[in-house]
């Protein structure tokens, strides 16, 4: 754990998530014409560790639900995500082409625009927080 306030850890996690999400969107766009390719997205990060210090006996008040694959889900074709990866199949697709590809450029570009706007907002928030820290230390 760093010596910075938890908000900086949260902003760092959020920025890493958005960078990974942008990379996955770029892969989706690059594979737009690949037969059978399924659009992917990135699971949102779990920020419960940032609020754990306010929980009872060190347990977080907010936690992310965990979904485990049952034998019935596996029988229907569900596959577990890659170990250590937050990249999952995108369940919010609007159409599937006859070749099995479900990447829609319009959806990907809209998502990319949202990720870029969120990243710009997070960068602005980080810059303002650093300015407040410098002011508090008498260096701003």
Topology:
Elements: H1 6-30, E1 40-42, H2 48-51, H3 71-75, E2 87-89, H4 105-136
Antiparallel strand pairs: 1-2
Helix pairs in contact: 1-4
Briefly characterize the structure.
With 140 residues, this protein is mainly alpha-helical.
Portion of residues in beta strands equals under 5%
Would you identify the regions where 5 or more consecutive residues have pLDDT less than 50?
Answer: none
**What is the number of helices?**
4
Q: Give the SSE order as H and E letters.
A: HEHHEH
Oligomerization status of the protein chains? single chain
Morphology call: elongated
Q: Which range best describes the helical content: under 10%, 10-25%, 25-40%, 40-55%, 55-70% or over 70%?
A: 40-55%
**Strand neighbour order, sheet with most strands:** 1-2
Distance between the termini: 26 Å
Biggest sheet descriptor: 2 strands, antiparallel
Q: Return Rg in Å.
A: 19 Å
The overall pLDDT average reads 80
Secondary-structure-derived class:
mainly alpha
Number of strands: 2
Structure description:
Helix content is 47%, strand content 4%. The chain has 4 helices and 2 strands. The longest helix is centred in the last third of the chain and has 32 residues.
Which descriptors would you attach to this protein?
single chain, 140 residues, mainly alpha
């Amino acid at each position: 754990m760093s010596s910075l306030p938890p908000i900086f850890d949260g902003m760092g996690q959020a920025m890493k998530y958005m960078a990974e999400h942008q990379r996955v969107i770029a892969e989706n766009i690059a594979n737009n014409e690949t037969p059978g390719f399924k659009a992917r997205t990135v699971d949102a990060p779990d920020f419960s560790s940032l609020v754990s210090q306010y929980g009872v006996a060190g347990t977080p008040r907010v936690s992310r639900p965990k979904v485990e694959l049952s034998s019935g889900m596996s029988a229907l074709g569900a596959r577990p995500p890659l170990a250590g990866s937050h990249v999952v199949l995108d369940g919010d697709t609007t159409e599937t082409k006859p070749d099995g590809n479900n990447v829609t450029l319009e959806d990907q570009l809209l998502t990319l625009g949202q990720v870029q706007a969120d990243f710009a907002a997070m960068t602005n928030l980080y810059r303002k927080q650093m300015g407040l820290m410098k002011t508090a230390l008498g260096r701003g």
